[in-house]
Amino acid sequence: MNVLWIFAHPEGRSLNAALRDEGLRALEESGHSYRVSDLYAMKWNPVVGHDDFDREPGERLLVASASQEAYETGRLSADIRAEQEKLAWADAIVLQFPMWWYGMPAILKGWFDRVLVKGLGYGIAAEDGTVLRYGDGKLTGKRGMVVTTIGARESSIGPRGVHGGLDDLLFPLHHGTFWYTGIAPLPPYAVLSADRLDDAGFAAAADGLRDRLRTLETAEPIPFRYQNRGDYDENLVLRGDLATGRTDLAVHLRG
Amino acid sequence: MNVLWIFAHPEGRSLNAALRDEGLRALEESGHSYRVSDLYAMKWNPVVGHDDFDREPGERLLVASASQEAYETGRLSADIRAEQEKLAWADAIVLQFPMWWYGMPAILKGWFDRVLVKGLGYGIAAEDGTVLRYGDGKLTGKRGMVVTTIGARESSIGPRGVHGGLDDLLFPLHHGTFWYTGIAPLPPYAVLSADRLDDAGFAAAADGLRDRLRTLETAEPIPFRYQNRGDYDENLVLRGDLATGRTDLAVHLRG
């Protein structure tokens, strides 16, 4: 497989960087090809703006339509096009970041804000007008996996833990971003208590990561429901006979 | 009250900007003072880096400890100190943004990444060693309210809607950021179907916003549980006799 590894940590000598290097070695050993987007090293600009779409600074900017027009006419900025080209090349994306405020660092959030423009990430319709998203999209067929380090200890970020469960915290990314665009999200790989890891802890974390990367091609994705296969009604609400009476985010998993 | 209005939209002639202007007028009419952080206009840098902490580019960066040290010695970068000063001044924070990929635009996520340094936003302990967070923190006493525009229609982002419920999508911000640092989050104000709003729709959205701002000082916050008042056990897991058998994010609301 072709793997795009997106790395979002400011320090090249961090636990995160050491894990990344272990991960890339594991990919090589499994015969995969990889490319790396090291966002800090690239000085990636995460802020959507006029320059993205070849617009003058004073021009009125409607982000969705401007992004679609620039995408379709090849006028997106070169840094965005370069990432889109890597994304097109990749069969799988690994997204590695330290959890900051229960989400991605801004530099990584802005990768999605800028790269997944209208016409590529959203605003896509079939010939009959059906909106293609949540399972069906231009990125269908690709896989995505989060690798994250978290300061919290394991119990506190599990079900009923004070920080909320990891699946719920990552729902906007797994479901609202990956799955929305068609990318099948794999279960995340999280290193807990990451700021208190000793050598043995790092070795275990690296082992776990290598194990997970060995099954990058075969692991079962998180089984989110498809928007267009009958589970949601015409108001895009889950049918009453599915996960009846529940309103938690896991209702969006196929039963 | 003193209100800090943080605005994160690239276009000064947008629906969002018009709503902001309506909102600021409403604050004035209610006798509040306000200051605005217009992140795009300020060219706010959302990327945590060496410069934040007065560190040399080549120096090894441990974000948490570097941020705490710079905070405590007054060596944080001037742009971060200016935002911290506004935050200290404010009794309430209004956070206005278009929802992008089910979260904040990167420029706004990076406001939290950079401003809420260790020693101010996290890593705070009482004299007896108790970690102060989730209700108790340096920002306790302040209120926070999200004002957001969303392309999706109302049914699709409610409970059982295909996009997930708004409270769940905003949990990392409401609970994991606001409440974590002590800020009491008010229910969010969301303008749905925002990219298809006609004049009457805008007038209704502006009316709704003015109504919500009139009760900024008195509205009941989202009743998240306190970490340190007995609801969580020593592993930071919710006690078994509270919201028994449930694992949805609403278990973290006081019953």
Uncertain parts of chain A: none
Query: What's the total number of strands of chain A?
Result: 6
Strand content of chain A: 5-15%
Q: Could you give a short account of the major beta sheet of chain A?
A: 6 strands, parallel
In CATH, the architecture of the largest domain in chain A is: 3-Layer(aba) Sandwich
Inertia-based shape of chain A: globular
Oligomeric composition of the shown chains: homodimer
InterPro entries (chains A, B): Flavodoxin_fold (IPR003680), Flavoprotein-like_sf (IPR029039), NAD(P)H_dehydrogenase_qn (IPR051545)
Protein name (chains A, B): NAD(P)H dehydrogenase (Quinone)
EC number (chains A, B): 1.6.5.2
Keywords (chains A, B): Oxidoreductase
Folded structure, characterized:
The structure is a homodimer of 255-residue chains. Chain A is α/β, with parallel strands linked by helices. Helix content of chain A is 31%, strand content 12%. The first copy, chain A, folds into 2 domains: 2-221, Rossmann fold (3-Layer(aba) Sandwich), CATH 3.40.50; 225-255, no CATH class. The first copy, chain A, contains 7 helices and 6 strands; from the N terminus they run E-H-E-H-H-E-H-E-H-H-E-E-H. In chain A, strands 1, 2, 3, 4, 5 and 6 form a 6-stranded parallel sheet that branches. In chain A, helix 1 (15-29) runs parallel beside helix 7 (199-214). The first copy, chain A, starts with a strand and ends in a 41-residue tail after the last helix. In chain A, 48% of the residues are buried.
